[in-house]
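Listing S7. Sequence submitted for prediction.
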Amino acid sequence: QDIGVLSSLGIKEIKVYKSTGKVSELQSSIDQNPVNGNTGIAHTRWATHGLVNEKNAHPHTNTTSDIVVVHNGIIENYTQLKTELDKKGYKFYSDTDTEVIAQLIDHYKKKDLVTAVKKALKRIEGSYALAVMSIDEPDRIILARHRSPLVIGLANNELFFASDINPFLNYT
């Protein structure tokens, strides 16, 4: 089973859509509650950490839901980081390693998102291809990779990224 998810920035909010099953089920949910934003990240997840359910579906947010992350890979030291962040008052809602990334970025976010992502990634052990968005910087998506593929495609006034070229090959 896979999980399809979508996150999009609206004007003053992050909207997160999650679904288990096929991507078409997620599309139905979005059709019923349309997105007004023009920037988004999505992920189809195979369950590495946690059961296949909506709470473990990507994207994951920080506690205040103003940072959102999708991630392909495995964070090997996520239990250590989760314990550390839990002691600092961060609340976790999923059983995934990805939520730790969102919370760690939040921990380091003092001013700008790029600096926070760089600091967080210095603490992460494992492999990742990830995309990060923040309500504070609505026109920006931060991409990073380590030991996992990340492909970027350009089209007319559009930018695509994925861990494989197939999802956007027809658009770029």
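Caption to Listing S7: primary sequence and predicted structure tokens for the chain studied. The first helix runs from residue 23 to 32. DSSP finds four helices and nine strands in the chain.
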